[in-house]
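Reviewer comment 2.1 asked that we show a complete input and output for one of the modelled complexes. We chose the benzoic acid case, as it is the one discussed in the main text.
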Amino acid sequence: MSIRLGDVAPDFTADTTQGPVHFHEWKAGKWAILFSHPKDFTPVCTTELGAVAKLLPEFTKRNTKVIGLSVDPVESHHKWEGDIEDVTGNAVTFPMIADPDRTVSNLYDMIHPNANDTQTVRSVFVIGPDNKVKLTLTYPASTGRNFDEVLRILESLQLTASYAVSTPADWKPGEDVIIANTISDEEAATRFPKGFVTKKPYLRVTPQPNL
Ligand code: BEZ
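Response of the prediction step:
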């Protein structure tokens, strides 16, 4: 079954490079990023895992745990981690799920049979502290993901979870945000003391409120 925004992220127990993980327990009320790879020892995946390993301190700073998945066994993941560090210079210090029987892959609908019936697509799930799915992304095997974009999305999700705002196209942290249309001008003046500009009655922008 496909996973939709707002659904509770399915719980599971799986072997990982850091021992068995009971997903909700492991997540422990933090944000989490769960992402899949088609297969071990593949070139694009090797670069992706190096990229995530490099960004890990940024995710950790934002109260976010990271967990990868590939359909190969744990011993294979461990050997592959050596290659990832060799090639990218970044050690993989977050857990990688081993999913040879595709239990987690099927639970999260990561196998798209018309693309490939044995390997996972490149999925990303961002899951909130309430265990609900806040974002899903699906990329084909041939296209490596941009994890700076995943970090940018996380920053938007965390900001908009705390303030009545949304973030515009191509927004980057530090730039102006959009005030929710459920907020009146009077209320906006109180909630956003740095002020706001009304570009259209339905489009009011204000400096990022938590800076
Ligand atoms: C890769 O990571 O390079 C890859 C994985 C599966 C199919 C094609 C490419």
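The first strand starts at residue 13 and ends at 14. We note this here for comparison with the apo prediction described in Section 3.2.
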